[in-house]
Amino acid sequence: MQVAKNYLYNAAYQLLNIIVPIITLPYLARVLGKDGVGIASWTNSLVTYFLLIASLGIVTYGSREIAYIHNDFELRQKKFWEIQTIHFLAGFVAILLYIAFIYGGGAVNHRIHENELFLWYQIWVIFSGIFDISWYFMGLEDFKKTVLRNMLIKLLMTALIFWLVKKPSDVGAYILLLAISQVVGNLSMWFYLIGKFKLPKLSSLELNVHWKPVFLMFLPTIATQIYLQLNKTMLPFITGVTASSGIYDNADKIIKVCLALVTSVGMVMLPRMSAHFAAGEHDQMKKAIHSSMDFVSAIAIPLATGIAAVGPTAMLWFLGKSWGEVGTALVLLTPIIVFIGWSNVIGNQFLIPTKRLHDFTWSVTFGALLNVVLNFFFIFVWGVEGAAIATSLSELAVIGYQLVVTRKDMAVLAHFTGIWRYLVASAVMYVAVMCYVNSHGVGFVSTVVETIIGLFVYAIALLVLRAPILDQLKNRTFFR
């Protein structure tokens, strides 16, 4: 029941993540234009690599370690300070490296030099990562605090965007607003520890025991972020157009909004699966993974199909006719909703809790390397569309690798016993929606009607096909 509550908390936050872009993306697309959005996207992709150094693999590693000892307050307090001290040290190194990058990169590359001021604004993103202790509350399965904090910050940020960002030259204000709001949000979480945790004696901290596992968790994090950010980083260099990063980024943001609903399952299940593993409850883990895979498939497949049907025409009124290329990129990116949803279950609910970091690392490293290779060729030939194709193929490679390495631990095919029903239901939904799309004009009302038609047809199809997800919902067995 606790896991279901945590999922609902996350789902509520993800719902806000859906509403906010619906409000801000079209506003920013029109106010900042392609160049402004492109600058914000590109400079953020660059600072993200240094944020990775500051964060290491601490969010995943820390939540797992806290979950192992959640009933022992003294040990939990000690481990918190040990992990967070490493976090502070890594953050200091990241800031030094980022400053060196700005000065050094500006001297050898004109694009970096031209955007030097915006890169300085982005340094606040690294500070936000240093003070992020959400991993501690995730390990305690206390998602309420982080979700409510994030929702408040998100609402405040949205209001400030409309207040402070008025014209194309306000791109700097927009970058600062996003970065500093993250800092404020992460600092606010520390107030929950005041009066509960005491400052430690440095001599009592055992940092050495954490360096190796944190670094091992860092490797897959790097690999994952490389193929999440590399496209936006490489596009301006290869195409010579900064706006191309903004086009891809808008498509990517819309996909991520939907993807967040799917990956919430893995986030809330990680501490629970770690606890099952620590208690030796392996059968419970397998049952939970099977339920999660079915749940994710039931959500991800129709989401991907629905976006592919509605996206291209919706983008014309949502962002403006000049952003039509986003619709094409959107369709090409839709498969990653399914692929990432599945790999999130296998990775966060099995490989990480069972300490199979080697396999997890290699899966995302394989995907990252493939993405780098494909990017050079595909972006050169097809530009933004090429970047989207490369991302989808890379995510397919990740889940493929994970299924291969876990085939002896679980009945892999059993994960997909009900998938044909979701595929058939989604196909019927796609045909129904496209019939309406092809016979009606472009506009907000048309998109709303298309969405309602899609939801209604998919729900009816699930009932007719007697999809497994219906039994889970009826018996309340999901996430158990």
TrEMBL record:
Broad class of where this protein is predominantly found: membrane
Bilayer-crossing regions: 7-29, 41-62, 83-106, 118-138, 147-165, 171-193, 214-230, 254-274, 295-320, 326-347, 359-381, 387-406, 418-439, 451-470
Keywords: Cell membrane, Membrane, Transmembrane, Transmembrane helix
Membrane topology annotation: Multi-pass membrane protein
Keyword Ubl conjugation in record: no
Domain of life: Bacteria
Pfam families: Polysacc_synt (PF01943)
Compartments (UniProt record): Cell membrane
InterPro entries named in the record: Poly_Biosynth_Transport (IPR050833), Polysacc_synth (IPR002797)
Keyword DNA repair: no
The protein's name in its UniProt record: Flippase
Originating organism: Fructobacillus papyriferae
